[in-house]
Design goal:
The chain is an alpha/beta fold. It contains 15 helices and 13 strands. It folds into three domains: about 120 residues, Rossmann fold; about 150 residues, Response regulator (Rossmann fold); about 100 residues, Homeodomain-like (Arc Repressor Mutant, subunit A, Orthogonal Bundle), CATH 1.10.10.60. Strand 1, helix 1 and strand 2 form a beta-alpha-beta unit. The protein is globular, with a radius of gyration of 24 Å.
Length: about 425
């Protein structure tokens, strides 16, 4: 009788209190269900990190979001294969561990947030992030550079909370930080488009706007990062956010760890977390245009993104000539009326591709394209891939069935250790 294969025992040092951690966990669970079984050990909570100490745990691998050099050294000291984000030491594998890295594309995140605000017509920019936080600083510099490249000013502010990673420390320190942020927000020229380094920071910005008596989004349009739906919807007004491909990254991290544990990979590979879309909510639902005709035109086009709209439809709605409208469009936003109509249709199509399982011909119809061929050509010209390719590349957004209900989560269950 052959020896029964050992079930891998994997420690997950990932916070369950943030969408970033939960998104990675969903992907890991999906991989464990399809290719397991795995025994998964996770300590629910925020950023406290510790390896399992139960005598019954005989670890074979680790997936972690590293919070300090000390945690990284502890992980390396186990000599177990691991996949981790935010590695502090370039030689993490020198201790003998096979390792891989989870790396978030902060430059692409900043670019997507800036583009979202630019397309709203905003021409003044601000960024709020955390001091002494590498990924926040990377996003800040990339965002400011994008504004500068466009010829626009950008103001920055860094929250100096010593314990921003620990919620109790955040709450205590925020009493002293909020007045500082209020003064900064009041000093900004209006209207301004502000990107926060993540949704937790974005929520604090919105609270500071209330304290400062500023109107969101008319005076300050705000967008965060992570698309933590609970946090975003609890904000007032609801917070727009850059969604990340977290579930796919979690799945790929688990796949890489599986290869490391079975010696099918020597390590050193990188799993990338990329942004997928900006989920627009009330905090950035603004059309910042000094030209009232252009503001009305943009609002009409965006409100009718799900049906076929022509340039003639817009001119009739506004009661202006096409020549006048085209001239004012180019002066105000640097695009033609037709290109703006197409852009809004494509934005609607991408949302449907990511958030539904509608076939492509239905997506084309629901996004206002006259035919599937027209849709395919426009999509390939803008995105560099087909609609099907775009959907396959970004599978981690929750796909809802045609009746609007999410698929059953029972299929994601896995054996989880205590």
């Amino acid at each position: 009788m052959g020896t029964r294969p050992q079930i891998p025992q994997v420690a997950l040092l990932l916070e369950t209190s943030t969408e970033y951690g939960r998104g990675l966990l969903r992907g890991i669970l999906r991989y464990a269900h399809l290719h397991g079984p795995w025994s998964l050990h996770v300590a629910p909570g925020h950023f406290d990190q510790a390896l399992p100490i139960a005598k019954s745990w005989s670890g074979t691998g680790i997936i972690a979001r590293v919070r300090s050099p000390e945690i990284e050294k502890l992980i390396c000291s186990t000599r177990l294969p691991f996949v981790a984000s935010s590695l502090h030491e370039s030689g993490s594998g020198a201790a003998g561990s096979k390792f891989g890295e989870i790396r978030t594309d902060s430059e692409a995140i900043a670019r997507m947030g800036a583009t979202h605000l630019l397309e709203a017509g905003i021409r003044r920019f601000a960024f709020c992030g955390f001091a002494n936080c590498h990924w926040s600083t990377v996003r800040e510099k990339a965002f400011a550079q994008i504004a500068q490249d466009g010829g626009y000013a950008c103001w920055t502010h860094r929250i100096t909370l010593a314990n921003w990673m620990q919620r109790p420390g955040w709450i205590e320190s925020w009493r002293y930080e909020q007045p500082v942020m209020v003064r900064w927000l009041k000093s900004l020229p209006k209207p301004v488009g502000l990107m926060a380094c993540n949704d937790a920071c974005g929520r604090e910005v919105l609270q500071a706007c209330v304290a400062a008596g500023l109107q969101v989004p008319d005076e300050v349009a705000v967008v965060g990062v992570d698309n933590d739906e609970m946090l975003c919807d609890l904000s007032s007004p609801s917070l727009s956010s850059v969604a990340l491909d977290l579930e796919r990254a979690g799945y790929e991290a688990a796949r890489l760890l599986d290869e490391l544990m079975s010696s099918r990979s020597a390590g050193g590979q990188v799993v990338r977390v990329v942004p997928t879309q900006v989920v627009t909510r009330k905090s950035s639902d603004v059309i910042a245009q000094e030209d009232p005709v252009i503001a009305r035109a943009l609002r009409f086009i965006r409100e009718h993104a799900s049906r076929a709209v022509s340039v003639e439809d817009v001119t009739e709605e506004l009661r202006v000539s096409r020549r006048t409208l085209e001239r004012r469009f180019l002066r105000a936003i640097g695009r033609t009326v037709l290109s703006e109509i197409t852009r809004c249709h494509l934005q609607r199509a991408k949302q449907l591709l990511l958030e539904s399982d509608l076939p492509c011909h239905r997506v084309a119809a629901e996004a206002g394209f006259g035919s599937l061929n027209t849709f395919n050509r426009a999509f390939a010209s803008k995105e560099g891939t087909t609609p099907r390719g775009f959907r396959r590349r970004s599978p981690s957004i929750v796909v809802r069935s045609r009746n609007g209900t999410p698929p059953s989560s029972s299929a994601l269950s896995s054996r989880i250790g205590n």
